[in-house]
Amino acid sequence: MEKPISVKLCNNQQLWLVVLISFVSCLVLVCFDYSALTSTETDVTTSLFGPAIGTQTKPRSCFGRYIYVHDLPSRFNQEFLDNCESITRGTNSNMCPYLVNSGFGSKIGDSQGFLLNNSWYSTNQFLLEVIFHNRMKRYECLTNDSSFASAVYVPFYAGLDISHYLWNVSISVRDSSAKELVKWLIDKPEWRRMWGRDHFLVAGRISWDFRRQTDDESDWGSKLRFLPESKNMSMLSIESSSWDNDYAIPYPTCFHPKTDSEIEAWQEKMRTQKRPYLFTFAGAPRPDLDNSVRGKIIEECKASKKLCKLLDCNYGVTDCDNPVNLMKLFQSSVFCLQPTGDSYTRRSIFDSILAGCIPVFFHPGTAYAQYKWNLPKNYSDYSVYIPVRDVKDWKAGINETLLHIWEDRERVLGMREQVINLIPRVVYADPISRLERFEDAFDVAVGGILDRIESVRRTIREGKDPSVGFADGDDYKYTFSGYVGET
């Protein structure tokens, strides 16, 4: 009489097992396919939350860090490299030699003992987009499935493109590549997920080169960043504009370390470096710019005799193009003067940091309002600020100001140590290897843009309009308000 009961129990157990397996299978399918099941062209909240935990095939450290790279037609990137002779229109420099070694340029040979190891190159300051792209190709959290991605990278060489057309070319030609790019992008499913607000591109020129505000043929640059679709994207460049969807990341320097030990060896060299000069300046006057402080700075440097070392970079002088000469100069000085030039910023900022030389700024737009991801918020910890609002009222007194600071040796040593500690964050490491203990400028930039895009997702989750504040103009970004200088 017990046997039928045993069979019934066995059948019940099998039934429950089937139900359990079916439930688990459905759950797995939901985890994998939720974004596909809910996708619509009009719902901006679709697939906003990055990869599902159950779908990770890479280490957990990649969660929230996956990046999808658009496979753009070669006319938007590779063809510029293949036809590098045409990049240099309107300039006197041949760009082709700078494109070797992943955009680092040729290796520097004899450095006369001023450089260490073989990780120094003759790097052009305008090749950030090439360097960044080559580094991104080896990024540890790339994904071929855009539904997993927290960000979408658009490898358009905008700087090389506009370099063809900045001089004496019609605006229709200047804008053609930008218009073709956004037309290509908006046809992709990745665009419809957040209408481009998870997309970013990197440019090797200042962002103002892409923000022509009129259709006057005499106006400068292209209209890339004023195209409606482009407004939904973020751009990283060597100098940002006053719009909220532009971000500044460091100019490429000539040091591209392969290992942590190379960075540490260089840092130690800068700590023990003898610095016979109080301050130094490498540059040329800007007589055509009404409010340029450079002429006054050069006058003060010359008048300071043995306290200041000047490297004249006037037109026709070639010493300033030699990285060894610049490193030699900056290593010999306690402070390095960093006035504005043709624009707010200059690569010399990062050359001086690399040399352990404390930068001296005269305008907040040169660094403080720019490189917020890479440089400390407390700017007085690593730099000196001497505000000059109007060159006509020049009262800088550089010599006296820096001598006064120099009297507090403990403060100066602390500032120098802060500068030396910044070195990893302002250099772009060699993509063939990987730093283990340091974040370089690429790592910092990727972290910054991922945080930016996640904040947009958070806004959407809260039911708010993601366009509010995304691409607004900030009239106060480059004003002197909020920054206190030396007294």
From TrEMBL:
- What does the UniProt keyword field contain? Glycosyltransferase, Golgi apparatus, Membrane, Signal-anchor, Transferase, Transmembrane, Transmembrane helix
Q: What is its main location?
A: Golgi
Tell me the GO molecular function terms: glycosyltransferase activity
- Domain Exostosin GT47 residue range list: 62-395
Pfam families registered for this protein in UniProt: Exostosin_GT47 (PF03016)
Q: Which GO terms describe its cellular component?
A: Golgi membrane
Q: How does it sit in the membrane?
A: Single-pass type II membrane protein
Q: Subcellular location, in the record's words?
A: Golgi apparatus membrane
Write down the InterPro entries for this protein, in alphabetical order.
Answer: Exostosin, Exostosin_GT47
Regions crossing the membrane: 15-37
Family membership noted in the UniProt record: Belongs to the glycosyltransferase 47 family.
Q: What is this protein called?
A: Putative Xyloglucan galactosyltransferase KATAMARI1
Native source organism of the sequence: Tripterygium wilfordii (Thunder God vine)
